[in-house]
Every structure is written in C-alpha cells, then in structure tokens.
Amino acid sequence: MDLLFSKQRITKSVAFVVRIIAVIVRIVQKSNMRFLFILFLCLFMEATQAGSLKDTVQLKEVVAFPVARNAKQFQTEHNQSNSVDKLLLNSNSVYIKNYGAKALSSITYRGTSAAQNDFYWNGVKINSPLTGQVDCSLIPIDPSQQFSISSASNAIGARVSMDDKSPFYLQAPIQFELQTRYLSLNAFDISNTLFLRHKGFYTSGNLYFHQGKYDFLVPEGQQGKGYRKQQNSKTSQLSARGTVGYSSKEHDVLFAVWWVNTNRQLPPVFTKLLSQESQYDQSLRIMGRYSFQRKNNRIGLSASCLKEEMRYRNPEINLISNNNSLVSRNELYYRRAYKQNMFEAELGFKYDFELGKSLNLLQNRVRNFYELKEQFFYSSRNRKVTVHATLYQMFFQKKVFVSGIAKAKITFIKPSANLFVMQLSFARTLRFPSLNDLFWAGAGNPNLNPEKGWKGDIHLEKQMTQYVNLKVGAYGQYVQDWILWHPVTAAYWQPENLKKVYGYGVEIEAVVGKRKTNDQTWFVYALGNYSWNNMINLESNSVNDLSKGKQLIYVPQHRLNSSLVAGYKGFQTTFDVSYTGKVYTTTDNTEALPAFMLMDIHLTKAFFIQRQAITLGFAVCNVANTFYQTIPYRAMPGRYFECSVKLNLKG
User: Fold this and answer.
1) Quick one: which H or E segment has residue 6?
2) pLDDT at residue 138 is higher than 50
3) How far is CA 226 from each of CA 30, 232, 627, rounded to the nearest angstrom?
4) In this structure, what DSSP letter does residue 361 have?
C-alpha cells in the first residue's frame, strides 16, 4: 500500500515537470524561437562527439559580495581538471579518497565522511538515498556549469553546489566550445558545449565522452619488487546535460536534464594479480523551477525527479548486485523584501520522497521528509554588512528535527581601495542515516539516530596591496551520534551511534603578484592554500577500543596547494605543487599511509582570429613519478602526459 501511494506521488511530480515543459514549449512557439529550440535538440544528437571540457571554473562563495579574489578562486582559473574530485582538491581542508584513476572518489571535508557532505545541482540535493554520498568521479566538468563549496550550511561537512550557468554572462549570443584531450594512460575524451541566448530566452548544453584503459604500471606484489601493468581497468563514460530557460524582470523559468552513463572495470589491489569485478552506473536527473516577482514580492516553486541505477558484478564469488533509487524533491517558497531590499524574509516548504530498491536491502524502502524553512537576510545600503540566518524544521516519522545557519559578512573599504573582510558562520547540523545504514540485509540497524552537531568558523581576508591578498581562518566542530560501522564479530559488521567527535583547524590562503586581466600582455603570480585539520574521537566503542583521543581515519592533518602562474601574449605556464600529510587507516592510529607530494606542469598557447580562439595545451602530471595511495593497496598513476586542443567560437 505504501509503495502504491509512493508511486502515485512520483507520478504527480513527473506530471508537474511535464506541465513545465509544455509551458516552456508554448513560450518558445509564441516567441518565434523555434530555430533555437531545434538547434538545442540537435546538439543532443551529436553523441558521438561528446566529451569533457576543462575551463575556468570558479569556486565562489554561496552568497556573492564585491570582494578581492582569494587563492581559492585563482586556483581554479588555471585548473586542468576534468572531474569534480580533482577540482575540489584545490580547496582548503579537502581530501579525496580515490580507489584509482576514474574509480570511486569520495570527499572528506574537515574530517567529515563522504555521506556528511551535501551535493546540490541547481538547488536540488543529489546524494544517493542508499549510500548517502556522491561518487565525484562520475561528475565531469564543463563550461556550462559553475561550482562552489561552502562550510556555511546545515550539513555536517560542506555544501558543494553545481549550477547551470545562464548564457547572459557571455558577450556573444552564440558560443560553441569543442575540446579533445589525450592522456598517456591510454585515455581520451571529447567535449562540445553550446550556449545560445536571444532576448530573455537562453539554452545551453554539453556532451561528454570518455574512454580509457588506465593500464599504467603498478608495484608487483606486496613488497613492491618490480612493476607490472594494471589489469581490468577499462572505463567508458557518456553524459549529456542541457538547460532551457527564460528570464525577465518578473518571470524566471528553468528546465534542466542531466544524464550520465558509466561502465567501469574495477582493477585489483596491487597485491593481487587478477580481478573480474565491474560496475555499471546510470543516473537521470530532471528538474524544473519557476519564480514570479512583482515589486517586493517573489513566489517560487521547483520540482525534480532523480533516478539512479548501479549494477556490481564479481564472477569470482558469483555475486551480482543491483541497486536502484528514485527520488523526488519539491519546494514552494514566498519571499518579501523591505526598505529597498535591505531586509528580506522567506518562508518555504519542502517535500522529499525517497525510494530505494536493492537485493541487499531487507525490502524496498520508502521515506518521506517534510521541511519548513524560515530565512532572513539583511544588507546595509552600501553592502558592507550582510547577515543571513536560516532555520529548518524537518518532520520525519512523527518527530521534529531542527537545524539552522547564521552567517555574517563585514567589508571594510579604505580610501586606498584596499579591502578587509570578516566572515562568520555558525550552524546547527543534521544528517539522517542512509537506507543502507538502516536496512542492509543482515547488518543494518533500523534504530539508528540522526547525526547532530554544531560548527562555526571565522575568516579574515585582507587585500594588503594591489599585488597581495591574504585570507586566514579557523573553525571548530562537534558531532554526536556519529554513525560508525564496526565489527561485532570477526565476520559481522553493524552500524551504531557510538561516536562523539570534536574537530578544529586553521586555514590560510594567499595570492601574490601581478594578476591576469583581459587587457594585459603579461602576468605572473603565486598562490596557495594550507590547512591544518584535527578530527578527534571522544569516546571508545568498547574496553579494547583504543581510538579515544585519536585522529579519525582518512583525515590528513596537513594539506597544501601552491601554484606559480606566468603568461605572456597568449602563452601560459603553470607549475602546481600539492602536499598531503599522512593519513591513519586504523582507528587506534597504529597504521597510516605516508605523506606524499605531487608536482604538475601545464603549458598552453592561445591563438586568436578575430573573436575566435584555438588553445593548444600540454601537461606533465606527477612530474617526479611519485608512488602514492589515498586508499591502501589502490595504486594511483605515476608520471603521465596530456595533450589538448580547444576551439572556442563566438557568433
């Protein structure tokens, strides 16, 4: 009965999205914009030319203010990554647990687990209801999206946002970008991205295709005597993403689709010769939103449908596992502005539906979440002081759970135009256990409590001169009812609310030098960020548990990213250095992965023909051929080379 009722709810949500599509189509027809609509559809038919386009992607703050560009922003201007996991590594306090090249990648931010970090696409949370996390290696980067990461959220970790850009930021009404990239790891990708805009209408789309063998050399056996080529490591990925929108003073409409299909062979640990494991992942995400504004009033609504499928196969132990999830997230809000937009207040309601199907679950599981949101925003007339507060009440299984955020930003501008900015944030955090935590066959614990905690941070940013910008910060965090999977017997594991965790750390970012602008012939600057992170367990699980007072596993205390960037008349050279301190792999801190340092060199040359541009690129990654691991016995690539060609056309 519950399943039937849930299907009816999904049907209604899908019907709502279909109605939004129909409205957009009617608007397009009435506005003589059929040719744009047809051209957008034609883009999606070019699947054979799809690929990942690396471009300038800025990790900006969730709330934008006129402020000096810090190291985090400059790190991404020359970023050569083609997936989100590599992009996020440019941020402070981020560690990526990676099972290999193009293998499962999960984020650790300030010591939190992957499931404690929320990922949003156009305002829609996309974390899997089964695992609670997101595989970052399945998210390609393309110019049609912008990324941001913020600790100022009610997530225990960070909020990572991926939003489709509006082409209104482009100078040209039509822009097309095509890039192909080849790696000496026997891998390549192709990408094309199209932006169109006309009056209030706009559309964008990206096609991405990737294929690789990743048969690089790995150590031979546990002692590492000699090397052999990695086996069973082929990967192929195809994705398509597109948006159609309309924006005016009163109306704002967006419809977006995102489809990803990935086939991966899972290589063995380097102490094992052979593996036959494989994994198939497919996701389809559809969302639509509409808002209407008149004078000081705005009303908005959004609806989304997220479908994911994962199939795991291991013939060695005759195991085939199928996991499916279906999610619908819906929101309605009303916002009112006062006193020339100095004050804003918002009241919102959200309804989330989650359905999980898996052979590993006791049965199909359905969850319904209801949430009320009250939001308040204040900005001084000169925008030097802003205060933002949000309160959430989550209704789940006849209980009420409260979380919230309060953040403030103060900007001091001296007559010399130098900036001094202070940012404060404080949050009550909350996370519900995943369906796997609760209902995994033979091991799930349906009595788990949600994780709850408190966190706060302060950051000071100073533009000391035209050529020097510095940002320093500190944070503290406390989490109770931490969900931990631990062994009950030698062969039986179960999750329980056993841990209380306290975290604290320091973060520093800096930029020094003559920075890149559009009208200068040369530039040179150095930038970097450093983080010192501690995440300490405050309680033992048993008498024999020695984890009390110890650092959590997979949390490096020290992380450093630095770059030297120089350019002259279309040439650009970037030298990147990153350092990751040792990470403990056992809760008693008796075993650890060693610290490692990586160095990359990127060379690019841009050729301009009127408004068109062709950029040639060459890179040497892991210059020192460093052997390193982020997961025990999972080898990462040594030294490899990369060549790329990017075509940018504007009309």
Assistant:
1) helix 2-30
2) yes
3) 69, 19, 13
4) B
